[in-house]
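Sanity check

After download, print the first record. It should look like this:
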Amino acid sequence: MRRNGSGLTIFRFPNLSMGGRRMARAITDIDKPVPDQEEETAQAIRHMMKEAANRTEPLVKVMSILDELNRLGILDAVEGLLKNSKQIAAIGMEQMNKPGAHRMIKNGMGAVQLLTQLDPAKLGAILQGLSEGVNQAVRPEPDPKQGLWGIVQSLRKPEVRVSLSMMMGFLQGMGKGLSKKSP
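Expected structure tokens:
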């Protein structure tokens, strides 16, 4: 090392080829450290712990959900389904190939489509009336056999008139729907 007149320091490197001197040897191999299995596992655990520390709230929620699913036995059921998935799939395919299965699926889809078009409050009222009607029909003490005159007289009862009026409205609406579909 020496200083020139301008105050700059000049360094000399003995291995460089300048004026007949030798250059440094070229680097041909770079040794990259390859971690063994234990180091990789430790590094993965450190990474997981860091990520878990950054996301504690969602992890606690997921653990709570899993605990509840386990308490209800749902995790056991899912585990059983997964362990026996091949047998379950084979049974399902066997059932699908039975006669009438395709028609049943189409009918089920049609029923679901119908339910999406109905007002739940109106359907609830109709189902409540249906339940009362079934209870009345199967009561333990049957009425004596009713003749034609008894049937005509029962048409004067308000509850019978309400039911008949509802059925007539149903039949009229069904007729309108059928007339739209028919060519």
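If your output differs, re-run the checksum step. Summary of this record's structure: Residues 158-181 form the longest helix (24 residues).
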